[in-house]
């Protein structure tokens, strides 16, 4: 049986963008923009997205498309005889499993809050009790396990239908709904009284703010966000390269993925800041923004229950699109490496991910005293390994593999990258790829280890 391909170009772009678009787009990006000089941060972010994120994205896609295989077999097919690049493939698989061991729990939180707003759990409480709803959820392993289980089983059921009928079809509908939801929520926020102050704080260039925190801090924050937003380095994108057609260049497709990812990130801020400013609520970053701040904002609003439910439906779609994209990678890897059929790969991976996600849940209640890496809890320890080690090191290895004569080789990479219609990658960029880009990634790696 031949390898599946995407049915349409838009299917490939939406699935790949869905993998990149995640929770970080909403709870991290807007806050970073607001705190790092508004439009100045956005300009640096776009610069680094084009000069760092996009090149690595094309390299990961090139390895997939040139080999038509999942990551371990891709390296084995493309690597020169006697080299061991494929060992990195196993690290990528480990990274994807580790990512899903905590990301499914966080996705479950979004689902839980969608139902809380849908059934009006915030309707009869005081503002001071909002944080208690989140801490109560964390203290109840049965609630988190149920929501995680719905995420895991639902995700694998979709993937069991195959690439075109499952992942592509569902993601196309879900991402279309996500874009409609995010625009609807942003328009609503911008029409609130006093909302424009929030929009100005968010997007207008703020030179005074940059002077206050330092240009270096702004640049390093923008570089960090631009690099990590695409989830590069764990072969999450490589697998979709193996399914894509030769009709369009990898730069053209990569630009579209980056554009959709950035669109969601920027528009998320137009939901959050105008609403927070309108109701005098201080915006912050991370989980407190989503689970403490925004529910208070929705409680102030007319029809807040509806807007809250729509927001957490959007968040559920954003996180679930990443989940099913990574699940597809794990399934394809199992099929390629163990010669399983899709049904067996789905069942084994579903059971494994469900069981291995439980420690993350227990880390907030029964195992709350358990501290791992640097005093971090289970979720933060798993995230540290993935985000601070596996992603940057993996991206560096993909880069070296594609530009080194001991790997795939720069000429072969450029040939694969430029196959089809669209924007071409210039050979003149070789010195930048060989010298500058590895240094930038090493800087990011060292920053993450501080």
Looking at the structure, what is the overall shape? globular
Q: Can you write the helix and strand succession as a string?
A: HHHHHHHHHHHHHHHHHHHH
Question: For the CA atoms, what is the radius of gyration?
Answer: 21 Å
What share of residues are in beta strands?
A: under 5%
The portion of residues assigned to helices is over 70%
Integer average pLDDT: 94
Largest sheet: none
The counted number of beta strands is 0
Question: Which residues form runs of ≥5 with pLDDT under 50?
Answer: none
- Distinct helical segment count: 20
Distance between the termini: 48 Å
Sheet/helix structural class: mainly alpha
Commentary on this structure:
This protein has 450 residues and is an all-alpha fold. It has 20 helices and no strands. It has helices spanning 9-20, 23-27, 29-35, 39-67, 71-78, 86-118, 130-138, 141-160, 163-190, 195-203, 207-213, 215-228, 238-243, 250-278, 287-300, 304-338, 342-362, 378-403, 410-417, 430-449. The mean pLDDT is 94.
